[in-house]
Amino acid sequence: VCLFVLEMGLWLWLKLAMAKRLIIPYMLPLFLVYWAEYAINQSLYENLKFPNYKKLNTDQQYRMYQLIYQIGVFVSRSSRTIFSLNSIWWIAFLQIANFIVLFCDARFHFLHSIYIIFVWIFYEGLLGGLVYGAYKIAF
User: Fold this and answer.
1) What is the pLDDT of residues 10-46, one digit of tens each?
2) Cα–Cα dist 82/43, whole Å
3) How far apart are the first and last CA of the chain?
């Protein structure tokens, strides 16, 4: 019994040591990218409304944002073999910057065209798919 407990402790220590090596280069940037994406998608899209836009009402705008985001993710994941990434930290910083800009726009409405928001959301999807592709290539 004592030997079993010792082996389990050693096994746990080895697993933690292995995970510690993965936290900084992979786990933390992935967490930041996905946190920023889900914060944008679940809380900011609802506030990026253009009530005077005649082609889409505000409910349709939200659905269009989701569609454009998914198209960006699809394009980026489909082209993952074209790009080679040594680090995913820069993607994390760009996605956090996206969150900050879209948060400020949701609050102050300084982007006056829905088409700018469409392009920005497509870019958000590209970054999200790119980091997913980098993660799949690394593992």
Assistant:
1) 677 777 788 888 888 888 999 999 999 999 999 999 8
2) 32
3) 36
